[in-house]
């Protein structure tokens, strides 16, 4: 008697959990590499756009100077200075722009940009198209105020062109025009020198290839700021890490008054301010360097991997925050200063 043959065909074998996890891990790693590459390419593209925009600002700035006997554009003119000097700025079509929004540079420069607003507000993802082309004195449209207060790049206003204000005596004065500083004599003994800090004409520039004209900037109060956001509002000026004899900002060392704050959430309490303000994320520095701000000011701001700047001669660069602590990058006279250029100071006036 013959027995029926048994079915010796093996059951189909599926993937094990370990094999699935390995495949998923490989896919995730590949996706991470692809995403990092796309992000890097995006940063490069946006950084190139920033540098191109800075070149446009430089050309407009140079045209302003050429139209004003080599004098460079003022960084700040208060309302009294505008009135005393009979300086009036008008909209593209008709009407005078209110003096309160002409104190900073944007409305001064726009005629030399052929009234193109892209170099001023093009960094914003929802750039406003409702900027007025005409208006009346005393009426300030929100879009016109935005042009004045939130431009893409800040001007080196304190040391190029100057910060002009009316003092208590009614006299118009350029800040730091009478300040005293230590000049290198070449003999090892400093010479106390007065003035010469604010660059008023292009011909007086010592190193046009390194002196910053415009750069990425945003306004911040005291605190520790870390990388995060790309679209913080710009500011109309940009400040070196030491302004006169006051420290404004510096790369963060992790220490405040001897207290290690690198891993604490009490930064606001240590500095005497609300943590919600002081911990606002900020994209600054190079290689993830945090920035410590000591005094409320318009400070360097890195949107796409570095602080985009244009120099007096029109050359552009992406700078790490450490490079910007060299005062020669901001102050023409610092090239002749005595001692460490990163520590160059002068009297407030």
Structural account:
This protein is of the alpha+beta class and 349 residues long. The chain has one domain. Helices cover 23% and strands 17% of the residues. Strands 2, 7, 15, 16 and 17 form a 5-stranded antiparallel β-sheet that branches. The longest helix has 50 residues. The relative contact order is 0.14. About 9% of the residues have low confidence.
What is the tally of beta strands? Answer: 17
Helicity range: 10-25%
The string of secondary-structure elements, in order, is HEHHHHEEEEEEEEEEEEHHEEEE
Mean pLDDT: 83
> Based on CA inertia axes, which overall geometry fits?
globular
Structural class category = alpha+beta
Provide the fold topology.
Layout: H1 17-66, E1 76-77, H2 79-84, H3 106-109, H4 118-121, H5 142-149, E2 153-155, E3 163-166, E4 172-174, E5 180-183, E6 191-194, E7 212-220, E8 223-225, E9 242-243, E10 246-247, E11 249-251, E12 255-256, E13 259-260, H6 267-271, H7 275-278, E14 291-293, E15 297-300, E16 307-311, E17 316-319
Parallel strand pairs: 1-3
Antiparallel strand pairs: 2-7, 3-4, 5-6, 7-15, 7-16, 8-14, 9-10, 11-14, 12-13, 16-17
